[in-house]
Amino acid sequence: MAASTFFIPPVNKIGMGCMAEAVELIKNYGYRQALIVTDRVLNEIGVVGTVQALLADVGIKSAIYDGTNPNPTTINVGEGLAILRQHNCDCVISLGGGSPHDCAKGIALVAANGGDIRDYEGVDRSAKPQLPLIAINTTAGTASEMTRFCIITDVERHIKMAIVDKNVTPILSVNDSALMAGMPKGLTAATGMDALTHAIEAYVSTAANPITDACALKAVTMISNYLRRAVEDGNDMEARENMAYAQFLAGMAFNNASLGYVHAMAHQLGGFYDLPHGVCNAVLLPHVQRFNAKVSAARLKEIAAAMGVEVSALNDTQGAEACIHAISELAKDVNIPSGLAELNVKEEDLPTLATNALKDACGFTNPIQASHEEIVAIFKAAM
């Protein structure tokens, strides 16, 4: 086994009502002026105002950037950076799901390192730590509040850039399930399936280790047990809290074992058509695992067991098939579209998407490396 490094924010608050304690922690860091990076919806429904008031109570002023797109762009990073500089902010607070977190990471990284966010595409390209980032999460989810991954759409090239950099890791993550209660069904389903994808891709990754395996399998079990409930009833706080823990565990897994072709391919769909990331992952996940089963059948059988499937009488090949079936059933139960055609993906674009997917850093740890034709074939199977 190769040596491994384990990345995680130094402090992580999780659980119902933990936001109040998190504000005390933020106060103790000594920051005076924050840039809150969020989206319009959270601003309009008053979540941003609530957080601003909590910060004001402990003497922290804040400016707001609420222009984050669902797939944050190079333009969003530039706009947020302008507000940060205008107000001389000494820290960044992201509020929302993966989109504001990723946008905030881009802003904080460029604020400290200079240049353009495009300069940091790839692995560990920055010279120094970003401006301190506190990530307050409202979805369960992308786990972007605790990872070193930052995905930004380059509007000129129509691709999603994967920035994997220890310097974009937040200093504090906050997962208060009370902030997740209002999440709509579709978003709950998509972000939950994103978390499942993180766990499964990390478990079959070539960089998996015993720590990431433990996190991934526990995440798979919890998502299998609680996602349907969280989608069915957004006010089922037991389900919400368990999904918050599950997505965090999945984040711990992929932040250290990395991902695979599901993400490498989903990033292209998101960058090209501006589609929701979690939905793209959910549609691709069974098809990529069918491709991976050539080398990962034993691991996929273990995932099936973690999902609650009785696999003791099955061989590895049958166990892998049972895993793929269980993934598809869960996706169907939470109303994920059945294929990419439903998302208006066009067959003539697949060769271009496949070319770009093979360049995405997330694919490098897929358990088996694919040819261009094989990636196109997986896209076709997912149509």
Automatic annotation (TrEMBL):
Pfam families: ADH_Fe_C, Fe-ADH. Its cofactor is Fe cation. Residues 14-176 form the Alcohol dehydrogenase iron-type/glycerol dehydrogenase GldA domain. Residues 188-383 form the Fe-containing alcohol dehydrogenase-like C-terminal domain. One of its GO terms (molecular function) is L-threonine 3-dehydrogenase activity. Coiled coil: none annotated. Transmembrane segments: none annotated. InterPro entries: ADH_Fe/GldA, ADH_Fe_C, ADH_Fe_CS, Alcohol_dehydrogenase_Fe. It comes from the Bacteria. Its EC number is 1.1.1.103. The keyword Oxidoreductase applies. It is an enzyme of class 1 (oxidoreductase). NCBIfam families: PRK09860.1. PANTHER family: ALCOHOL DEHYDROGENASE (PTHR11496), ALCOHOL DEHYDROGENASE 4 (PTHR11496:SF102). Belongs to the iron-containing alcohol dehydrogenase family. This is L-threonine dehydrogenase. It comes from Xenorhabdus griffiniae. The lineage of its organism: Bacteria, Pseudomonadati, Pseudomonadota, Gammaproteobacteria, Enterobacterales. The gene is yiaY.
